[in-house]
């Protein structure tokens, strides 16, 4: 189309990229362009002078028209981008956005309404697809969270076992609202008579993938503890398993082997990149025990150190994840010094010490844990 035809106002009106309607103040259609007729399938003679704009709307939109659209137009003189549906000649509905202007004469009396109608069928379809995709994603996330939480419940014993001669307590607090499972885990299990293993670890990351690696770590420790008598050898096995596994997640862990020999408990401690346990003795302050080893699952030739201590009456070992010492209040860290002070101040049962640590680190963070927290306390009765 060239020349006068393309510039002719009548042609531009009739073939505009949007529908045009003109009505009387009470809504009777007096003019309609070809675009609107082509979209809706209505004939011009069936609309002009015969039907009102509101007659082209489904029942729900008619109510909206009378209660919101028309009053807004009368009060403000314009109504912009109103979402409605137009009923086509064949009964199908076409989603539209309508912008209308109320024309007045020199005395201010309404003389007509001019409306531009935009077909938003594709936009509405896209919005529905986006909403459906969002709902599918939310449902998928909910299933993944439920799966991970269910899996983690199998990784953390609900209560530590009863060990004659020892008092054991544990606590676990996930980060944030607790919906997304983290990688902290602990386990306390028996290998033989008067021979027990305590392990506490932290797998990098959160979610179902971290939970899977957590399960692998926990059950590897259980299996390796049967074949190996010192914690360092168990950690070597776990390190090898993680490096060969199809995962890029690493792990830290601290392992304590507890044996009762001639009536006295001997604890052998080894750490794989994990914070060292605190040893508290009667009349003395809590202090770290053991030697650091490499993080598990990263270094090809990792090394680990076994440290043995004899535990007497009143002694206690406190194992914890870095969610305790790295708890934050603004720029302040909870820190190892504050943890030692809490351990020293609560010398009752293992549960009393464990509960005091959890309560204090949560209070320090205003009950908003930014990382998972796990604590295990083993005390000699």
TrEMBL record:
One of its GO terms (molecular function) is kinase activity. The keyword Cell cycle does not apply. CDD domains: PAS (cd00130). SUPFAM superfamilies: PP2C-like, PYP-like sensor domain (PAS domain). The keyword Nucleotidyltransferase does not apply. It holds the Pfam family PAS_9. InterPro entries: Bact_Sigma-Reg, PAC, PAS, PAS-assoc_C, PAS-like_dom_sf, PPM-type-like_dom_sf, PPM-type_phosphatase-like_dom. Keywords: Hydrolase, Kinase, Transferase. Residues 26-57 form the PAS domain. Residues 80-132 form the PAC domain. NCBIfam families: sensory_box. This is Histidine kinase.
């Amino acid at each position: 189309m060239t020349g006068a035809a393309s510039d002719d106002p009548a042609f531009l009106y009739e073939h505009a990229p949007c529908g045009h309607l003109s009505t009387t103040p009470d809504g009777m259609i007096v003019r309609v362009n070809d675009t609107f007729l082509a979209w809706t399938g209505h004939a011009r003679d069936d609309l002009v002078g015969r039907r009102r704009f509101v007659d082209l709307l489904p029942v729900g939109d008619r109510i909206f028209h009378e209660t919101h659209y028309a009053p807004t137009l009368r009060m403000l003189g314009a109504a912009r981008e109103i979402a409605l549906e137009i009923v086509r000649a064949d009964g199908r509905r076409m989603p539209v956005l309508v912008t209308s202007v109320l024309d007045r004469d020199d005395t201010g009396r309404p003389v007509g309404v001019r409306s531009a109608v935009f077909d938003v069928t594709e936009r509405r379809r896209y919005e529905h697809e986006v909403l459906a995709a969002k709902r599918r994603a939310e449902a998928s996330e909910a299933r993944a969270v439920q799966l991970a939480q269910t899996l983690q419940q199998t990784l953390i014993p609900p209560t530590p076992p009863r060990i004659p001669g020892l008092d054991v307590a544990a606590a676990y607090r996930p980060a944030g609202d607790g919906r997304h499972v983290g990688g902290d885990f602990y386990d306390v299990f028996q290998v033989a008579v008067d021979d027990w293993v305590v392990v506490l670890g932290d797998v990098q990351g959160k979610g179902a993938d971290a939970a899977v690696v957590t399960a692998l770590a926990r059950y590897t420790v259980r299996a390796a503890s049967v074949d190996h008598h010192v914690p360092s050898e168990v950690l070597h096995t776990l390190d090898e398993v993680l490096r060969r596994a199809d995962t890029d997640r690493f792990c830290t862990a601290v392992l304590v082997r507890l044996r009762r020999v001639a009536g006295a408990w001997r604890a052998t401690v080894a750490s794989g990149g994990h914070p060292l346990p605190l040893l508290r003795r009667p009349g003395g302050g809590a202090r770290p025990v053991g030697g650091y080893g490499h993080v598990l699952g990263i270094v090809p030739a990792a090394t680990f150190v076994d440290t043995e201590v004899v535990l007497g009456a009143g002694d206690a070992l406190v194992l914890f994840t870095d969610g305790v010492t790295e708890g934050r209040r603004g720029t302040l860290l909870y820190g190892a010094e504050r943890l030692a002070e809490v351990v020293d101040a609560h010398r009752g049962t293992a549960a009393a010490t464990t509960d005091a640590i959890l309560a204090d680190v949560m209070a320090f963070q205003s009950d908003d844990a930014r990382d998972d927290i796990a604590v295990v306390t083993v005390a000699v009765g």
